[in-house]
């Protein structure tokens, strides 16, 4: 639950204004603390105990947990709202493929290839699965450790190690400790034995319960031992239990401020559905209903892409339109006589125009003007797609160094900026193109002939 400045000011010294923290009063300092604008250590008169208490109050309702390292690390948690429309969701759930040590070498290699090679370009982003979950189905320590070593050496993906045997689990942990793997399978029965091993070489821990009630004493016990990187599995058996449990954990952490459940969660549709399509549908439920890691038994290009697009849509900040970077984009292999067109950076507009140009098979340059995610006409109405601003973008982009002609095609819907744009770009000829992207197919082949005369 958000902490108010009035709650925090009660913990401050309350001296007459000393301004040593950089603020005129303790209340001003407290208000800034509450909004994340400063930190408790700015006040020189707070005891370590009070600082720790304030930091605990200001900590996110759901703990941030990092699995993996470098570019392939997966950050989960740190969420602030139950429903996306309240603000935004922060960290998309990690998607993992399950690899068992009882599977054939051919199947293992096939899954490793899928998780490393299946990638999709989408609105300027690369969509992919991020994690590999390795399961000790064989109950054979050497076989499991050997598989972990193989996957560790052949990929840099974030890893989840799954075993009911602590000796096997921690032996595998030692192989890939520098990768910050998630160790899954800590239960109320083995947690006391696991804690000393966890403290030796700290990594994120997956807590497995038969119910939400099982998780609470375990998280408290970890906290008492200074261990706070945990992922929760409430042991849901079917989709109804899953929605109930995930919602309860999220609401308890965020709405009630119940710290023992303030951790990210993991879901296993791979164990709840055997049919591939049903499994993906169940995974989509977990993406929407709060799971921070979703483990799939398998996937292919047809089942993975819809799940990744759903995740992107749910975890896109609703306060800001999806947009692409302002710059010029090459379509095909354009040369100095290729046409130059301009559009806005709203992702939908960009990809419609890009696809229409690509369909003509005419190599071209597409200049994208930053309109803060607005379409061309809306951007013009908002003063973000004017002659002067488009001209400034053209000069910044460096496109002039790539071409021998100086002809720029603008969308027909903003034909009125033609004169203003030509005034702002001396020496350029501005061509009014089609009003709709559907007209590019007929327009571009005829236009390109004029560039080579």
Give the structure's gist in a few sentences.
This protein is of the alpha/beta class and 453 residues long.
Present the secondary structure layout.
Layout: H1 5-9, H2 26-34, H3 48-58, E1 65-67, E2 74-76, E3 94-100, H4 105-117, E4 119-122, E5 125-128, E6 131-135, H5 141-154, E7 158-162, H6 166-175, E8 182-186, H7 191-200, E9 205-208, H8 212-224, E10 230-233, H9 239-254, E11 266-267, H10 269-272, H11 276-288, E12 293-296, H12 301-314, E13 327-331, E14 340-344, H13 347-360, E15 364-369, H14 376-381, H15 387-397, E16 407-410, H16 418-424, E17 429-432, H17 440-451
Parallel strand pairs: 3-6, 3-12, 6-7, 7-8, 8-9, 9-10, 11-12, 14-15, 14-16, 16-17
Antiparallel strand pairs: 1-2, 4-5, 13-15
Helix pairs in contact: 5-6, 11-12, 13-17, 15-16
Structural class: alpha/beta
| Number of helices, where a helix is a run of at least 4 consecutive DSSP H or I residues | 17
The CATH homologous superfamily of the largest domain corresponds to Dihydropteroate synthase-like
Assess the beta-strand content as a share of residues: 15-25%
Number of strands: 17
Principal-axes geometry comes out as: globular
N/C terminus separation: 68 Å
Give keywords.
453 residues, alpha/beta, 3-methyladenine DNA Glycosylase II, Chain A, domain 3, TIM Barrel, Rossmann fold, eight-stranded parallel sheet, five-stranded mixed sheet, 17 strands, 16% strand
Describe this structure in words.
This protein has 453 residues and is α/β, with parallel strands linked by helices. 40% of the residues lie in helices and 16% in strands. The longest helix has 16 residues. The protein contains 17 helices and 17 strands. α7 links the parallel β8 and β9. The strands form 4 sheets. Strands 10-9-8-7-6-3-12-11 form an 8-stranded parallel beta sheet. It has 3 domains: 54 residues, 3-methyladenine DNA Glycosylase II, Chain A, domain 3 (Orthogonal Bundle); 250 residues, Alpha-Beta Barrel (TIM Barrel), CATH 3.20.20; 125 residues, Rossmann fold. The mean pLDDT is 92.
């Amino acid at each position: 639950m958000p902490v108010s400045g009035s709650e925090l000011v009660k913990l401050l010294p309350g001296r007459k204004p000393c301004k040593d923290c950089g603020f005129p009063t303790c209340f001003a300092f407290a208000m800034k603390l509450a909004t994340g604008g400063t930190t408790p250590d700015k006040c020189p008169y707070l005891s370590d105990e009070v600082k720790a208490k304030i930091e605990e109050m200001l900590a996110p309702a759901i703990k941030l947990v990092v699995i993996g390292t470098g570019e392939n690390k997966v950050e989960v948690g740190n969420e602030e709202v139950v429903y996306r429309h309240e603000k935004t969701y922060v960290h998309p759930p990690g998607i993992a493929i399950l690899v068992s040590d009882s599977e054939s070498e051919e199947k293992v290699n096939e899954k490793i290839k899928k998780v490393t090679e299946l990638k999709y370009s989408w609105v300027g982003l690369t969509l992919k699965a991020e994690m590999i979950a390795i399961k000790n189905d064989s109950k054979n320590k050497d076989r499991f450790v050997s598989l972990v070593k193989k996957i560790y050496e052949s990929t840099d993906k974030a890893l989840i190690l799954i075993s009911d045997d602590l000796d096997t689990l921690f032996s595998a942990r030692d192989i890939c400790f520098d990768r910050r793997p998630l160790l899954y399978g800590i239960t109320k029965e083995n947690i006391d034995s696991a804690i000393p091993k966890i403290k030796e070489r700290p990594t994120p821990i997956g807590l497995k319960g038969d119910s939400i009630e099982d998780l609470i004493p375990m998280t408290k016990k970890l906290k008492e031992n200074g261990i706070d990187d945990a992922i929760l599995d409430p042991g849901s058996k079917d989709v109804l239990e899953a929605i109930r449990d995930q919602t309860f954990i999220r609401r308890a952490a965020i709405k009630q401020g119940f710290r023992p459940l303030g951790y990210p969660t993991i879901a296993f549709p791979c164990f709840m559905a055997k049919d591939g399509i049903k499994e993906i549908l169940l995974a989509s439920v977990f993406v929407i209903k709060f799971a921070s890691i979703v483990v799939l038994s398998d996937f292919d290009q047809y089942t993975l892409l819809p799940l990744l697009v759903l995740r992107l849509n749910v975890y896109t900040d609703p306060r800001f339109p999806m947009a692409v970077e302002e710059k010029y984009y090459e379509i095909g292999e354009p040369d100095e006589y290729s046409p130059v067109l301009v559009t806005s950076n709203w992702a939908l507009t960009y990809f419609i125009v890009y696809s229409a140009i690509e369909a003509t098979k005419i190599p071209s340059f597409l200049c994208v003007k930053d309109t803060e995610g607005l379409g061309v006409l809306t951007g013009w109405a908002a003063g973000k797609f004017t002659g002067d601003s488009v001209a400034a973008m053209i000069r910044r982009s460096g496109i002039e160094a790539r071409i021998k002609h100086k002809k720029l095609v603008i969308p027909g819907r903003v034909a009125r900026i033609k004169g203003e744009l030509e005034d702002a770009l001396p020496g350029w000829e501005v061509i009014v193109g089609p009003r709709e992207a559907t007209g590019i197919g007929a327009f571009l082949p005829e236009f390109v002939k004029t560039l080579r005369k």
